[in-house]
Design goal:
Structural class: alpha+beta
Distance between the termini: 15 Å
Number of strands: 7
Strand content: 25-35%
Oligomer: single chain
Strand order of the largest sheet: 3-2-1-7
């Protein structure tokens, strides 16, 4: 699924984040993200997004660790400046749900960063639900930065105590706009 739009909302009665994904093809999927999963996911997601930004700029060229970190932070800040947090989401998602109408809960996430010439900087996120279904997203580094920001904002709204990853830009930490990205 090539990502087009992301919406993240904190749902207090469930104490979960509801993630709505809209693909460029128009396919819609909704997933529940639990606090426990997000706390475990956030650090590795930050690292994967940083690697995706570096891969997008430099491919497989080895860089000194400090240079790679600076490049990733610069690219992350640029991605947030260019992200569209102002356009409202499309009409309420008629998302892919289970036959009984329930939204699936994510139980496991796999992150892969492509470094080959064709897909350099592409982050693949495979969400495995507790019922065994897989939802795979192919996300450019800039969109992955927006997703990371929206997840952090949702966690803050829920009071989950998720601290921004080390070296995260002030713009990411202070982003207070709407909870969606086009």
């Amino acid at each position: 699924m090539q990502l087009h739009q992301i919406t993240v909302e904190y749902v207090a009665p469930e104490d979960r984040l509801l993630l709505h994904l809209v693909a460029q093809s128009g396919e819609r999927t909704s997933l529940w993200i639990t606090r426990r999963l997000l706390l475990a996911l956030y650090g590795p997601l930050h690292q994967a997004v940083s690697r995706a930004h570096v891969a997008a700029e430099w491919g497989a060229v080895p860089l000194p660790e400090g240079a790679a970190d600076l490049l990733a932070e610069s690219a992350r800040a640029q991605a947030l400046r260019e992200a569209d947090f102002a356009t409202p989401p499309q009409a309420a998602p008629s998302a892919q749900v289970l036959p009984d109408g329930a939204v699936p809960v994510v139980g496991e996430v796999t992150l892969t960063v492509a470094v080959g010439a064709e897909a350099a900087g592409q982050l693949t996120i495979r969400w495995r639900t507790t019922d065994g279904r897989d939802v795979e997203l192919n996300v450019p580094a800039a969109a992955a930065t927006a997703l990371q920001t929206l997840l952090l904002q949702g966690a803050e709204r829920g009071g989950w105590g998720l601290a921004p990853a080390e070296n995260e830009t002030a713009r990411t930490q202070e982003a207070s706009g709407p909870r969606f990205m086009n």
